[in-house]
Design goal:
homotetramer, 357 residues, alpha+beta, 2,3-Dihydroxybiphenyl 1,2-Dioxygenase, domain 1, 6 helices, 18 strands, 15% helix, Glyas_Fos-R_dOase_dom (chains A, B, C, D), metal-binding (chains A, B, C, D), dioxygenase (chains A, B, C, D)
């Protein structure tokens, strides 16, 4: 296991929330069909090479930037900070960690001005910004809403080989862990952490990394998520529904995972719980609890464990992967070597498909 | 393939709807937990050996009779007919077919009086009745409703080796076929048929039979079905969720399949469509269409194809099975020999779990 | 009170269901905004003077015909019959009653062929047809569905001065009464009656008539109805929401009443109950029960009682009104002379707005 | 207009969220029927004189204390602060304002320890606390959830004569204003303000005060709110539904107002929007906009404007009222002297019931 990432003496920037994702896609027109025609995200502006999209409740310029490029990858996980001054803190914090740091007064993308991008100690491209163009909040514009209306960017999910190491760094950055998945021997398989008072702004999922596991948008009700599934069936792209819909154990949210044309994974998510109290209780799940990932015990498809999106460094080059050396959640839970239970202590395997792989 | 069942010269009884199921269970107390505590069916009356249950919108005495017995099985699929005189027609119709027919003026179960039971030509125990005790329709009794409130008995589903033969007999009995699953070579894998103007009062599913595949209750909304899943998770019986929730291709309904303590399969079902016009168009699905059984392409678990409940003859003896000789839907669609497509003509297998068995 | 309408010796035509409404509108473009842009009805075909619309689950050519004309009115309430031969029965039935009857082999509107129109004994223009063009059933076409997707034509509602007289005639025509509103002195204020096994295909509402009270379309879930309200707010036409959304006492359905540009009233309706058994219990409501029209006791706006659409005779002339001489539901329930109770025997008036008019 | 309340030099306590309400009720058994049997709040503990209740997602001891007493009133609006040290700040802050301040190491109610109560400068009894007993978060305990499951305490709403004066004080206390209702002449009728990143932790509503307008609990979905209405109908207490359900203009939430046995008003609320960004845009509504209080233009019942609950001082004595001298929202919007529009500039009054009072 790698050494702990040092805690900087410089204070961390005060992060408000995950704010947008910059995503490189290889066929912008096909991606537009997915994010605009299928999911109904609102186009703030677009060009031949970029599309800026937002959710219905958003008042900042965008929650997602699609940029045409040669390799499907994540260019930036962007967080909004509480004031312009926090950018100085971000510079100092990461400089002290020896990370590459780049600040641009004019911003890295349209709509955002003064911004700092870093490649963080676990390899991810992170942006911090405060100054941003305001646009119309379309929460009341129901004549524009579709049956699966997406109303907020909810969270990111990152793949990293050493979850405790990554989580400790995120805590140094001011995040609080809300839930995690462990086993009895001390292996941590995943951890969820938040700035805003929901279950997460991002999560660390154990695996070869750095990669992006998914980006998640929130809807209001469960039927909104079902409407997206129904529409994907009608469009004969049900093979892009990877997992769900279902009820998470972790977070208690109702969820769906779908894949964009490049294989970037998108979660649609609704109804987790308030975590904003300082003593909010941590929820720890046993990795063998078959209801941890799906409260109804429905199987996690193997691709969900193995596939993820590359991330880019600040030069736009794909960051090479470090292999996870801890146990993998997939191998300890499904297949010949793994096991899961519905009731602790229960050894019966049952008929669930996950046991039959 | 067996010979066609003759069409009687006697007119068929005029059937209104599927009305109740008599089910033998091996542990009445555990079954009560499932049907009353979990699903919230209303107890009309009960004794040490029997429980009479109904749905919230029902005004006849019961939709389900649970009877303690040595072997878990179906004792009767009961249909309501339009008038007392239809019972005479039922007697003549089945007598002409050479079936065993038994009529009891006092009825076979509590709440029902004059009734006819037969073992039909495909081996199933069927009851016809008109006279029945009325009870309070609890549609307005919202103080009694639970989050997954079941409001109607919707349909039966029967397993039989030769679907066209069974379906032709049901058409003789006055049913109309609304949907079916076929392949290009003329094999029929399943057929749905109705008296009331929904997609079905019963369906014939190809397999070793006679057996009951499932009994289905209707709810009003999709969240009601999700509530049942969530509750099963909370009760740590998610391993009794067999398949779903999902959207059917066939019927367009939202569905869930769960298993009672004896393994009797129960479907929760909502929102199919009106089929009551005389020229209602038949919908035929290709057996290889991966959206036929789940519109989102989610895999059908093998047990769903292979497991079913025995049925009893009029003496209470389990009816022996006849093996299906036609292709099985499971073998032609999943595993090494089968295939399914999302888009007709598309040969890519994709990541769906069903392809990985 | 007028004499009872005689029962013809000719058998009544076998009616399957209410099938479509032909509606004269004074500004076709504005009506198109309402029915197509706002409500999302599907355009089967259209011209400069007519628009043919259907719901998502429909497979016959249309459920609503909008025809440009000088006076906003109903041109026909159209019912589908079970076979072509039923049209002969319709001719004989109404001819015996002395009604004007017109039969056209080519039909009265596009998509429908052989059809009979009559002005019935209570003054309404009624059409019967069997032959009709089939179109694609869009139940599975979720990519076309809107948040308030309308899936079926559910019922008509007619205003007539003498409800028992009209209801008796409808029973002669083969309808069954499912619910009604009465007082202790024998006055009947409204009655609901069905052919298909829902609460109604049409209702008779006491008032000066013949007029159309409303036409109702069904959605699947309550949130679909709320989505229509939200959209009307966003479009700043909330003043066209007349009443609701709410839960009916009568029918137990969830409802909304909105007004089209000509003031034709449209109901959006979901989740009544099965009525198809021959002994389905009649539900009688006390006119003073404040939950009969809205289960939550929310007030009925006076316009809902007083306003309705004229109907045309077979020459296209507005049918003159006959005044109701029985008590009006509005006057006996609200205002200085009326009263309503929440609990029978309770005399407290409470704070509800209906009491303050 | 009264003078502005001075801004203390002492820093305000860092408030996390509105946490619980202590409510005096005159008949504890009847209140239990309302809050426990009807609404399904979870009983943490209870005695002959007190009931401690919480919502399903809560992990602190309670969100509502019902205490038997002689006069129906609010005894405390309680906020949770970020650390024990904030209590010292609360003492200093209010002491500097000349308010009565009382601190009890053992707390004022069960489950809470060290707490500060004050009578704030606008007359309300406010509590601050950090130390509190943790209880089981029942978010996953779906077997306990009812169809109208309440998952969070969302906000308070207070009546005060001078809204800008009260709002300025709340801003001094660290709140941010998210929305308000004004007219063109500078009168402010109501203001919403938050600590947690929802539309509000409390609102100030113009009227004779100090009084409590309502306390609001959150549900997940709109159907949960409808289920509460349906149940109140079934229990024949629909006369305790005061207003709604409906969609708010302000907050964009779906809402319902009901009255407990003492007339304390409870709102059920779902789906407002994220307000946690430091530059979250203020939304100002015109008092004459008929969609401000109900997005569908449904009328606000007069009692909603005029009735509210008394509040107690720290000795348990009802605080006398100060009369509002600014215009009242009711008088400027409904009745002979008021007006509301659906579309700005539109003078037509329409048929809406609110115009007919």
């Amino acid at each position: 296991m790698a050494e702990r990432i040092p805690t900087p003496t410089s204070p961390a920037p005060d992060i408000v929330r995950c704010a947008y994702l910059e995503l490189v896609v290889t066929d912008l027109a096909r991606s537009r069909e997915f994010y605009v025609d299928l999911l109904g995200l609102v186009v703030t502006c677009e060009s031949d090479t970029e599309i800026y999209l937002r959710t219905f409740d958003e008042f900042i310029h965008h929650n997602l930037v699609l940029r045409q490029g040669p390799v499907a990858a994540v260019a930036a996980f962007a967080y909004r900070v509480r004031s312009p001054e926090e950018l100085d803190r971000a510079v100092d914090f990461y400089t002290e960690l020896g990370c590459r740091v780049e600040r641009r007064g004019e911003g890295f993308v349209r709509g955002v001005r003064d911004a700092v991008r870093v490649q963080d100690p676990i390899g991810f491209p992170i942006e911090y910004f405060y100054e941003v163009e305001h646009v119309e909040r379309l929460a009341w514009a129901y004549h524009l809403h579709n049956p699966g209306a997406l109303v907020r960017l909810d969270h990111f999910n990152q793949v990293t080989p050493d979850v405790p190491r990554a989580a400790a760094h995120m805590v140094d950055l001011g995040f609080r862990v809300t839930e995690d998945i462990e086993d009895g021997e001390g292996t941590v398989y995943a951890a969820w952490m938040r700035r805003k008072p929901t279950v997460h702004d991002t999560a660390m999922t154990g695996g070869d990394g750095p990669r992006m596991h998914h980006v998640a948008f929130a809807t209001h009700e469960k039927h909104n998520i079902i409407a997206i599934c129904d529409k994907m069936g009608a469009l004969r792209i049900s093979d892009r529904i990877e997992r769900g819909p279902g009820r998470h154990g972790v977070s208690n949210a109702f969820y769906l995972y779908i894949l964009d044309p490049d294989g970037h994974r998108v979660e649609i998510y609704t109804q987790d719980y308030w975590t904003g109290d300082p003593d909010n209780p941590l929820v720890t799940w046993d990795v063998h609890d078959n209801q941890r990932r799906d409260w109804w015990g429905n199987p996690v498809v193997p691709s969900w464990y193995t596939e993820a999106s590359p991330v880019l460094d600040l030069d736009g080059t794909v960051v090479p992967l470090t292999t996870r050396t801890d146990d993998s959640e997939m191998s300890v839970t499904i297949g010949a070597d793994g096991f899961s239970y519905t009731r602790e202590g229960d050894v019966e395997k049952g008929f669930k498909l996950g046991n039959q792989l």
